[in-house]
Automatic annotation (TrEMBL):
<keyword id="KW-1015">Disulfide bond</keyword>
<dbReference type="GO" id="GO:0017004">
    <property type="term" value="P:cytochrome complex assembly"/>
</dbReference>
<keyword id="KW-0812">Transmembrane</keyword>
<protein>
    <submittedName>
        <fullName>AhpC/TSA family protein</fullName>
    </submittedName>
</protein>
<feature type="compositionally biased region" description="Acidic residues">
    <location>
        <begin position="204"/>
        <end position="219"/>
    </location>
</feature>
<dbReference type="GO" id="GO:0016491">
    <property type="term" value="F:oxidoreductase activity"/>
</dbReference>
<dbReference type="InterPro" id="IPR050553">
    <property type="entry name" value="Thioredoxin_ResA/DsbE_sf"/>
</dbReference>
<dbReference type="InterPro" id="IPR000866">
    <property type="entry name" value="AhpC/TSA"/>
</dbReference>
<feature type="region of interest" description="Disordered">
    <location>
        <begin position="189"/>
        <end position="229"/>
    </location>
</feature>
<keyword id="KW-0735">Signal-anchor</keyword>
<dbReference type="GO" id="GO:0016209">
    <property type="term" value="F:antioxidant activity"/>
</dbReference>
<feature type="domain" description="Thioredoxin">
    <location>
        <begin position="43"/>
        <end position="187"/>
    </location>
</feature>
<dbReference type="GO" id="GO:0030313">
    <property type="term" value="C:cell envelope"/>
</dbReference>
<keyword id="KW-0201">Cytochrome c-type biogenesis</keyword>
<dbReference type="Pfam" id="PF00578">
    <property type="entry name" value="AhpC-TSA"/>
</dbReference>
<keyword id="KW-0732">Signal</keyword>
<keyword id="KW-0676">Redox-active center</keyword>
Length: 229
C-alpha cells in the first residue's frame, strides 16, 4: 500500500467534534490507539489511497467486506460499547445514516476490543440500523496501518465509491462535521443534491407540534362541564 505524502496530511479541517476518544494498545507500538479530539483530515481525489482488502462477520452472522460497498460512499466507524465518546456520537451517526441513504451513502461499524454480548446489546438498545463487524482483536484497524489508520476509539473513515479513503475523523464526530465531509463526495459522484435530503431533526421537531395541535383539537371537541364555565 502507498504511504501518505506530507502534502496529503497537511489538508486538515478545522472541523472538530467533542473532545474525547480512548487510548488503547493492541500490540506493538505501531498498533497503539491514541486519544482523538474529533479533528478531520480530507484527502483530495488525486491523493486518496485504497482501503485494504478486509472484512469480517456481523453480529447477525453475515460476511461483509469493504469491497462489497464499491460503487457507494461508505462511512466506516470504529467503536466499542464501553466507550463514552462512542455513545455520545451514536445519535449523530444514526441521524446522518437516515438522511443520506438515498444519496449513495452506506454505514458500517467495526466493533473492537469489546465483549460481543455487550456490543450486541448496545446496538439493540440504541436501535442502530446499520450493520457492524465484530472484531474483538482489532485486526481491521490494524490492516490500515500503511494507509490511513483509524487510531482512536471512536474513529470514522469516509471511503469513496472507488474504495479509496476520502476523509478520516480521529475521535467523535459531529453532525455538521460528518455531513460536511459527505456532501462534496455526494456531489462529486453524482448521487444527488445533499440539500434535498430529508432532515431527521426537522421531522422530530415537527412531531411535538402535531401532537400539541391534536391535543388542542381533542380538548375543543371534548364535552364541556360546569367546571369549564
Amino acid at each position: 500500500m502507498p504511504l501518505l505524502s506530507a502534502a496529503v496530511l497537511a489538508t486538515v479541517l478545522a472541523l472538530t467534534g467533542c473532545a474525547g476518544g480512548t487510548e488503547i494498545q493492541t500490540g506493538g507500538e505501531e498498533d497503539r490507539f491514541i486519544s482523538g479530539d474529533g479533528s478531520a483530515t480530507v484527502f483530495e481525489a488525486g491523493d486518496r489511497v485504497p482501503v485494504p482488502e478486509v472484512g469480517g462477520t456481523t453480529f447477525e452472522g453475515d460476511e461483509l467486506a469493504l469491497a462489497d460497498y464499491e460503487g457507494r460512499i461508505l462511512v466506516l466507524n470504529v467503536w466499542a460499547s464501553w466507550c463514552g465518546p462512542c455513545r455520545a456520537e451514536q445519535p449523530v451517526l444514526d441521524e446522518v445514516f437516515a438522511e443520506y441513504g438515498g444519496l449513495g451513502v452506506d454505514f458500517l461499524g467495526v466493533n473492537i476490543k469489546d465483549n460481543e454480548t455487550a456490543a450486541l446489546a448496545y446496538t439493540e438498545n440504541k436501535g442502530v440500523e446499520y450493520p457492524s463487524l465484530y472484531d474483538q482483536p482489532g485486526e481491521i484497524p490494524q490492516a490500515f496501518r500503511e494507509t490511513v489508520p483509524p487510531r482512536a476509539i471512536p474513529s470514522t473513515l469516509v471511503i469513496s465509491p472507488e474504495g479509496e479513503i476520502a476523509a478520516r475523523v480521529i475521535g467523535p464526530t459531529t453532525y455538521g462535521q460528518l455531513t460536511g465531509l459527505l456532501d462534496p463526495l455526494v456531489v462529486e459522484y453524482g448521487f444527488g443534491d445533499p440539500e434535498d435530503r430529508p432532515r431527521v431533526s426537522e421531522q422530530e421537531s415537527a412531531e411535538p407540534e402535531d401532537t400539541e395541535e391534536a391535543d388542542d383539537a381533542d380538548a375543543s371537541d371534548a364535552p364541556r362541564t360546569e367546571a369549564d364555565g
